[in-house]
Amino acid sequence: MKDLFDRATSGEPKFEALRKDAREEMVRRKDEALPYLFSKLGTRDATKRNAIKDIFLQIGDSGVPYLLQALKLKDWRPVIEAAFILEEMKEKRGAPALAAIVANENWRVRQAAISAIGEIGDSTLADAVLPSLSDGNELVRKAGAYALGQLKWKTRPEMLLPLLGDGFYGVRYSASFALSKSGAEETRSLINSFKKKSDRLARYHLIDAIGETGTDDAFAFLISVTGDADPLVRAFAARMLANYQDKP
Predict the structure, then answer these.
(1) Which of 73, 118, 197, 239 is a Cys-bridge partner for 150, taking CB atoms 3.0 to 4.6 Å apart?
(2) Is residue 222 in a domain?
(3) Separation of alpha carbons 179 and 170, rounded Å
(4) How many domains does the chain divide into?
(5) Alpha carbon of residue 103 to chain centroid
(6) Residue 155 has pLDDT above 70, yes or no
């Protein structure tokens, strides 16, 4: 299996045909290949990691138990690779196991698990993602906010509002994205929040979030702030109004 794996993961362009044939053979011999692939999930070689992911994706369902087992390992490298593959597979069976590691001591594991939960789209696990909003690592906060947007979480949008003033732009944009999934009732709450906000960055991101909801209240709000004293507020509102061309 080692020789087959070496051919399947070769990065040399001239061996593309051999590489393709080797990967297809590993898929055919999946019962032998999966334990070997499992043992290599922690490789530091990026070319091999991409190849392993591709083979797992081709194998499909039969590889899921190995990926779930990898999530329990102590070494963070195979854990995040397993999370990445489950994310790309959108494998719902992986969601509970991913939720079990969202508080892992390694920020890379937390980030990978949260991102995978969001991509898989299991909204029942939104509560498992919430603690990430106050994580000490900015990339974890970003992943958490974005995942909540993917899960269309609307229960307590006020928990996302403080992130609009986060020091990391990625967190701010992800929080705005999540808030943009709000419904009519939540949109009215966001409009009220805008009126109380003094932080300029938060106000700009709130305009984006409100505008993206597409509700009638959002349209009326955007019209109302086109006369704001802050020229950037006016500019953000005008940009959002371009999405409402069907409105009179």
Answers:
(1) 118
(2) yes
(3) 14
(4) 1
(5) 16
(6) no
Domain of residue 238, residue span: 164-243
CB count in 10 Å sphere of residue 31: 8
The model carries a pTM of: 0.90
Distance CA 148, CA 138 (A): 16
Average pLDDT score over the chain: 94
| Contact by Cβ (8 Å): 145, 172 | no
Q: Is residue 84 part of a domain?
A: no
User: What band does 16 get if pLDDT is binned at 50, 70 and 90?
Assistant: confident
Helix axes 216-224, 200-213, angle to 10 degrees: 140
Structural tokens at position 227: 């006369």
Task: Count how many Cα atoms sit within 13 Å of the Cα of residue 35 in the half-sphere of its side chain.
Answer: 3
CA distance 93 to 109: 18
DSSP string covering the chain: -HHHHHHHT---GGGHHHHHHHHHHHHHTHHHHHHHHHHTTT-S-HHHHHHHHHHHHHHGGGGHHHHHHHTT-SSHHHHHHHHHHHHHHT-GGGHHHHHTTTT-SSHHHHHHHHHHHHHHT-GGGHHHHGGGGG-SSHHHHHHHHHHHHHTT--S-GGGTGGGGG-SSHHHHHHHHHHHTT--HHHHHHHHHHHHH---HHHHHHHHHHHHHH--HHHHHHHHHGGG-SSHHHHHHHHHHHGGGTT--
Buried b (16+ CB within 10 A) or exposed e, 93-104: ebbebbbebbeb
